[in-house]
Every structure is written in C-alpha cells, then in structure tokens.
C-alpha cells in the first residue's frame, strides 16, 4: 500500500516493466480510440436526435429512438467480436485485427502519440489510412454505447427549442424550415 501511494504500481507480469511505464506508453492509443469513437457517436447521434425531434411521435421518431436504444443494449466486446467476424473474417473488408498498425508498416514518429495525427503531420498517408483502418471497427463498437444518450439529449433539447417563441416568430416571418432548424434551433439545442 505504501508503494501504491507513492505511485509504484509494481511490475507487469507480461512485459516485466513497471506498470506505470506501460500505462503511460499505452495511454495515447486508448485516448485516440476514445476520441475517434466519441466523434463517430456525435456524428451519428446528433442527426438521429434532430430527425426524431423534427418528427415527434412519428414512425421516424420511433425508428431513431429504437435504433440507438438497441445499439446501446449490446455489450461493446460482443459488438467488437461480431464486427471482426463479419467485416474481417467473412467479407474481408477490414484489416487484420493485429494492433494499432499492420506489422510491416513503420511506426510514425511520436509527436502526439496518436498514430493517425503523427502520420498526417509527417505526410505518411499510407500509415494514416492503415491506422484509421485499425481504428474503425473498435471505434464503431465503442460509439454504439454512447449514441443512445447523445441522441436522447439532442432530441429532448431540440424539442424544447422548437417549442420556443423565437422559433414560432421565425416561422411566422417565413424563414425556410432548414434555416430555422439549423441556424436557430440546432445552435440553441446544442448548448445543453
């Protein structure tokens, strides 16, 4: 316990190195995957929540809410294995799940620790493509869990904004529906 309080987590059984060194070395990979999954979840959940809010109570609303709820119902590890089975094993569309990069590609210089960003900085687009290829299936499996709350919050916030007086005024002035939704509605709904 004294060692733990001082930051000594012991030695790794796998590598024989101090555990803290292994954690620091692998933290950028976890952060890159988490960031990519979050961006993917936002890119899908916000339009779904917006679509559901624009058509409240309709089959579109029920389909959007049901889709994100079903997506969040499956454990991430199960979805990840299913995606690897389908897209790598059966269809051959995804690269082999061997790590952050395929074994024959050079590791980009460690500027940020994010392989995609580091490779883009030095202009190695083959490594960027390979790193994104290795990220896509794990990011999809992680993003499914985050989509449901994001879509629900977007829908609820957008419903509140769409019932506001300034939206009614914008409609009364004859503004196009797209401008009302994107400029006035979504901008205010995204604050929460």
Question: What is the topology?
Answer:
Blueprint: H1 2-5, H2 19-54, H3 59-73, H4 76-90, H5 115-122, H6 125-162, H7 165-172, H8 177-189
Helix content: over 70%
Global morphology? elongated
SS-derived structural category: mainly alpha
CA gyration radius, whole angstroms: 22 Å
The major sheet is characterized as: none
What's the overall average pLDDT, rounded?
84
Q: Count every helix, treating DSSP H or I runs of 4 or more residues as helices.
A: 8
Q: Hey, roughly how much beta strand do the residues contain?
A: under 5%
Distance from N terminus to C terminus (CA atoms, Å) equals 42 Å
Element pattern in H and E = HHHHHHHH
The count of DSSP E runs of length 2 or more, i.e. the number of strands, is 0
Query: What would you call the quaternary organization?
Result: single chain
Low-confidence sequence ranges? none
């Amino acid at each position: 316990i004294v060692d733990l309080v001082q930051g000594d987590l012991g030695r790794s059984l796998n590598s024989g190195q101090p555990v803290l060194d292994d954690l620091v070395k692998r933290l950028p990979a976890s952060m890159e995957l988490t960031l990519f999954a979050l961006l993917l979840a936002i890119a899908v959940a916000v339009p779904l929540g917006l679509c559901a809010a624009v058509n409240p109570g309709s089959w579109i609303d029920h389909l959007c809410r049901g889709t994100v709820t079903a997506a969040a119902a499956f454990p991430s590890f199960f979805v990840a294995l299913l995606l690897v089975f389908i897209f790598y094993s059966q269809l051959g569309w995804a690269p082999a799940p061997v790590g952050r990069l395929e074994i024959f590609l050079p590791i980009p210089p460690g500027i940020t620790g994010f392989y995609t960003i580091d490779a883009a900085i030095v202009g190695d687009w083959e490594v960027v493509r390979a790193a994104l290829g290795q990220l896509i299936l794990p990011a999809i499996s992680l993003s499914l869990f985050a989509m449901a709350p994001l879509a629900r919050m977007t829908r609820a916030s957008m419903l509140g904004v769409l019932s506001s007086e300034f939206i009614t005024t914008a409609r009364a002035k004859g503004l196009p529906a797209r401008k009302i939704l994107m400029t006035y509605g979504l901008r205010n709904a995204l604050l929460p």
